[in-house]
Prior knowledge:
Elements: E1 15-20, H1 37-51, E2 56-61, H2 69-74, H3 79-103, E3 108-112, E4 121-122, H4 125-133, E5 137-141, H5 151-161, E6 166-171, E7 192-193, H6 195-201, H7 208-216, E8 221-225, H8 231-236, E9 244-246
Parallel strand pairs: 1-2, 1-6, 2-5, 3-4, 3-5, 6-8, 7-9
Antiparallel strand pairs: 8-9
Amino acid sequence: MTHMNNGAxxxxxxxxxxxxxxxxxxxxxxxxxxxxxxxxxxxAEKIKAIHALGIQxxxxxxxxxxxRGSTGEGLGMDRTTADHMGMIATVMNALxxxxxxxxxxxxxxxxxxxxxxxxxxxxxxxxAIRHMEKGRIVIMAGGLGNPYFTTDSAAAxxxxxxxxxILIKATKVDGVYDSDPRKNPDxxxxxxxxxxxxxxxxxxxxDLTAFTICQENNIPIAVVNFWEEDHLLRSMQGDxxxxxxxx
Length: 247
């Protein structure tokens, strides 16, 4: 089914979930940790562009630009404690993105899997859906609220819960290739893959748990170069000349 806003460009999607890594918010070059205000503003503008198509948008965001649970575990920390610190990092990123979205004129809400009532709403599925139906962007932070799960898995589960039409995996590469395009100039991009084909290739896109959740719940995955100027927008308009669609 094709969805449209007020007579504007059609889109095959009504509701999407965008999965962003924490590194997307990091300072340029990827060699330092933190939140780069300019990067956050660019992300907000890209979300605003697809929202203008009439698409309801939810975002799941990582925290790797601030902290990784695996980093703490590697230093000898208890895994649960290290993962909880990572969940808190995702909330910091979510607050930064909400602030940028609001300044760009977009109503937005942060919902967290860990209760932080003074700064964000608890994640409640029906409330999240209602926010999106009212045109608000919902940023889902805190992962799943449990250690040992990645934010990829959180994105796949939340996409299932809110009945998203597609999960968008934002990357720095234009889709899935038959070999590393950074090393092989003749690498071929796949326009579409089945889940079984993707699992056989094992692309470094999402973890196995996330793939399985999407496959079992029939949620397509769009692997898109988020940083190319209009690739996200074109993908949401059904353009198969960018990214890879796994379905």
